[in-house]
Amino acid sequence: MTTPQTKGALLVKTVVFVIAAMLLFAPFLFQDVRSIEVAARICIFIVLVASYDLLIGYTGIVSFAHTMFFGFGAYCAAIALKEMGNGWGSVLVGSAAGIALSLALAVAIGLLSLRVKAIFFAMITLAAASVALVLASQLNQITGGEDGITYRAPDLFKPATKLWVDGEGKVARLFGVRLNGKIAAYYFVFFTSLALFIVMLRMVASPLGTVLKAIRENEARAEATGYRVVSYRTFVFCITAVIASLAGSIYAIWLKYTGPDTALSFAIMIDILLMVVIGGMGTLWGAVIGAVLMVLAQYYLRDLMEVAAEATTAIPLLPDLLDPDRWLFWLGIIFILLVYFFPKGIAGTIMDRGART
Question: Domain 4-356 has what CATH class?
Answer without folding.
Answer: mainly alpha
